Amino acid sequence: MLTLHNRSRFCITDILIGIVMLLGLVSPSVAQCPEQWLLGNGIPGVNGNVNAVIRWDPDGAGPEPELLVVGGSFTIAGTTTANRIAVWDGVSWKPLGEGMNSYVYSLAVYNGQLIAGGSFTTAGALTCNRIARWDGYSWQPLGTGMNSDVYALTVWGTQLVAGGAFTTAGGASANYIARWNGVSWQLLAGGMNSYVYALHVHNTVLTAGGAFTTADSNPVNYIARWSGTTWQSYGDPANGAVRALTTYDGQLIVGGDFNRFGAATFNYIARWDGAAWQTLGAGVNSSVHALTVHADELAVGGDFTTAGGAPALRLAKWDGALWQSLSSGANQSVRALTSYSGELISGGYFTAIAGTATNYLARWNGTVWQSVGTGLFFDGTQSYVNALTLYNGDLIAGGNFTSIGSAPTSYIARWDGAIWHPLGAEINGIVRALIVYNGTLVVGGDFTGRIAWWNGTLWQTLGGGASGDRVRALAIYDNKLFAGGEFWAVGGSVFTDNIAAWNGLSWEALGPVGTNNSVRALTVYNNELIAAGDFTAADFTPAAYVARWNGSIWQTTAGGLNARVHALTVCDDKLIAGGEFTNAPGTIATPASYIAEWDGVSWQPVGTGVNSYVYSLTTIHTHLVAGGAFYYAAGNNANYIARWDGSVWQPLGSGTSNYVYTLMPFGSRLVAGGRFSLAGEKSSVYVGQWGPLQDGDLNCDGSVNLLDLAVLAAHWLEGTGP
User: Fold this and answer.
1) CB contact at 8 A, 358 and 371
2) Would strands 682-683 and 660-666 be described as parallel, antiparallel, or unpaired?
């Protein structure tokens, strides 16, 4: 019997995969995968708020690792599409089925199964009104659920208890709280008179906290305990909502919006010693939303900025005697805490902790905060990619971003085909344009100097830079580098409005005055430089938003266009313009909805156009591609990106999840950059790729592996192989 060592197996596997790739290249009879959006950048953490975190071990004492479960408003976890709920196994993110159609606010483990509560009405393919259980394969309802949001879950004995904004559970009256016995929902006496935000079992006693002031008509003021038959108060009443509960050092810990119990001052946090409420030092200075015990200390999260009178931005710990901050804290509210795999897990509304980009979820190892997973920094709609180019075989991206994963970067980064890398540290403002000129990478934007070049080690201002607000566009014409934007001089002494040329040694003006407003796009067409933007005149020559420079003088393009132009390209021997315009005065009888073409004589519409602004244009495989703020092209759904084949507009799959600002051919693929985090429902933060999958990927699963051999073998058996 022949036994192969692991190394031999890997070698043989590599050889077989190589054969599959080769045969995929030479066998036209084997069906090729269609063009599609490819899986792109992931993010450290998730792309939306985290409201709940919990540990869950699906196989109990079995060999599988314990999981971290996260619920919130997000739709991406790492590179995984995960609708409002996801699990982290310590290495990677995984979805739980198709997730939910709206927010998850609470999580619990009941009879070994995961329970989620929130504002959702469907979980997976089933109706699960605000509460659902994961049976290991799919989401299942718990009865007919609730009529409004579920904010809190806990397990009390053999029953699951839910609290929230609902007034019915399983179709029966249940004022803001109900219990599930495994078969049906039941009341807990008369319930409360307002929302329940927190549930906890302390010393076998069920405790509820919230915005209510009565429980079963008894005065309880924001916190109550269940005797098994009736609701009772805890000593002196609070004066504000209770939002978090836990047990620490044998005592019940309560956090929320209150600052008093009875006549005594309690700054947003208190402890119940079994007989009366006690303080935790000086407390904190604003609301507490999350409590847990980690490393024998009480961890606290919320909206506060001090703990014990000392700075503690939204995160702090209490050791039984003293308050301490957890590093320099979070930049927004902390809403969930738990302990997982020896680390403290924090979730909430924040995008950074202690200066580290963490995207709504972070882990504390006792020394530093780190992201959960790695990827491209994501900050909702605040970050984006404006410009793309190729340089020395790498993809270069510029925009409004300052981190890649947990590593800082200065508005520009390079992709080597596997990971993103920072590119210098000298750029200190938004990058808006990129180009390679005479083998050198050049960048324009809002940063100091407005235009710079990369010497292989660091960024240097090009020829003294531009004086003004920004450089928006770059192009090469007549062996010169042209820069357009919003500036009034270049090189410190060459006065020119909004456009200039660099001849390799010095700056030159284009006529006495340039343009009378911003230049946003540049390209070359019919041996002339084409400039477009906000201007209505170029060197005193009327030019409605588009003008052409022949090396000596400015000229118009017939009647021009009627509003701002953002993008230019050349396709099928025609100049294409995209922007905010809706017609071209004097040359178009029908509207040109945000996109038009110039044949050297007149402007014409491109089909029926799109329904909103076009920000970017390019060509690939003879097709024109447009990206922008539109979501319809020729009346069909085309979320922010579409292509024109010369006759009709077509969407690119399901498009992207937000605006597209830049487009670039990349081999056989199209690269798009913008504000989006999804492209074709796949994680593609700020940068997405559209095109064919890898050669040899015969089963179209996105990778070349031994599974493709089965496809190849099937074709051979059918007589359709090579």
Assistant:
1) yes
2) unpaired
